[in-house]
User: Fold this.
Amino acid sequence: MLIAGAGGHALELLDLLLNQQQVDNLVFFDNVNPITLFEGKYPVLKTEKEILEQFKKGPHFTLGTGNPKHRKFFFDWFTKLGGMHFPVKGEGVVYSNFTENSDADIFNLCFIGAKTKIGKGALINTGAQLHHEVQIGDFSEVNPGAVVLGKAQIGNFTSIGANATILPKVKIGDHVVVGAGSVVTRDVPNGVTVIGVPAKIV
Assistant:
């Protein structure tokens, strides 16, 4: 399997895959940094030609970066080259039977409530909570420890900071950044950054 990225998020992803014994033919991709081995063991690919050769051995890839724009870029590129996205499901996840999950990564110890909808390529990071009827857009990230309460809606390409809280029924637009530890009490328009308690646009 090919992991897109070779930084800190990829390291956590590697740990998860090792625990699940899903490490057959495991390689990474990073064409920015000079490393050739990840953690001194796993090959790091650098070119599109190498990606194509890897997909001949096995088509699966997963997203080893948390940044919404980077996740979208790798998802589209690798899919175009014939890859198939492998969504990660961590350990200790409480996962409702009444949820819609379209190709999202869900890391360890998350809570996914009833009738939630999680978009393509989204990342629900370690310990995050999505309560009943929450909607998460495509390629958005909910960072560790964040809590999204009932019927809140998160747009596409939006980042919810670590330990932030989104109150019930709040609607957050596309391309929004919510600062770590913020408490969002009101709707947030597209393309802004909000921080604080209560969160305000900066």
Helices lie at 8-19, 48-57, 68-80. The chain has two domains: 2-85, 88-201.
